[in-house]
Amino acid sequence: MIHWPRVRQLRDEVGADEFDEVIEIFLDEVQEVIARVHADTARQDLEQNLHFLKGSALSLGFEVFSKLCQDGERLAAQGEAAKVGLPEILAAFAASKSVFQAELNDNLP
Questions:
Q1: What is the pTM of this model?
Q2: CATH topology for the 4-107 domain
Q3: Are 72 and 84 contacting, i.e. CB atoms less than 8 angstroms apart?
């Protein structure tokens, strides 16, 4: 679910002192975009929102979530936004976030 080598790489890139802030910003920005996804009942901006979520997820190692966002982004780009499984995508984010927070200290030496 979490690609820990990517998380360690990110920590090394931004520095241990800045890492907690990067995590907080990531989670806040993702929550904001998820709120926009919920508000976009016509799914007009779904492709762009999923693109953003995919990139954010990749940067923090949320593999399953990023893959689902990528699949949804492709569907939306093909004009099939109604087929995107938003509940599955949102559940993957919640699960990834939970695992990330629970296992972070154990996976970062």
A1: 0.92
A2: Four Helix Bundle (Hemerythrin (Met), subunit A) (1.20.120)
A3: yes
